[in-house]
Design brief:
Blueprint: H1 3-7, H2 10-13, H3 16-31, H4 38-56, H5 62-78, H6 89-111, H7 115-138, H8 145-157
């Protein structure tokens, strides 16, 4: 574990004004309990899917992945860390497998967004953020901030409470798109 990895922070990669704005926006979000209308949430789910397609497309083939890793290695060096290590064919295979699966997952959310898919995506993003943070603690990889910050923001945004319908203040259950259940006895 390197000393640099322990002190890496968003402030070292993001300009101070942008970081202050992001921090203030997150603080405002956390001050109250925002409720998104379902239509807005579905747009958010589609936007996150479009972001994934644009971000992960270079991971989908061995040729585009090779070009991407070259650029990421240069960026990592520009941020003051060593170049990324060379990838063996097995690493490239695993990266392209990831890229292919994420592209398919993104197409599912883009063409058929739902509250359930958005919640699953949010969970995956938060777990992926954990793995990115773990990797950053293992090696000097400031380039991973480029992926970590958006993953966290998309994951948190997709966990915001959602209103049942326009004008309703009743939140839906976390993993369903159905209204709250009533018993057959009239309850």
């Amino acid at each position: 574990m390197t000393t640099r990895a322990l002190v890496a922070s968003p402030e070292t990669v993001i300009p101070p004004k942008s970081y202050a704005y992001l921090k203030a926006s997150l603080h405002r979000l956390c001050e109250h309990d925002p409720m998104l209308p379902l239509a807005t949430y579905l747009k958010l789910t589609r936007l996150s899917a479009l972001y994934d397609i644009l971000t992960v497309a270079p991971f989908a083939t061995p040729w585009t992945f090779t070009l991407l890793t070259t650029q990421l290695s240069h960026l990592n060096g520009w941020l003051g860390a060593p170049a990324l290590p060379a990838f063996a064919p097995i690493h490239t295979l695993l990266a392209t497998l990831l890229g292919t699966l994420v592209l398919l997952w993104s197409l599912c959310r883009l063409t058929g967004p739902s509250l359930k898919l958005g919640r699953y995506d949010a969970t995956g993003r938060l777990l992926f953020s954990l793995w990115l943070a773990w990797a950053m603690l293992q090696e000097d990889l400031p380039v991973l901030w480029v992926f970590l910050l958006p993953e966290l923001l998309w994951g948190l945004a997709q966990w915001l409470p959602v209103t049942q319908s326009i004008g309703s203040s009743t939140a839906r259950a976390a993993f369903t798109s159905a209204a709250p259940m009533r018993s057959s006895r009239g309850g």
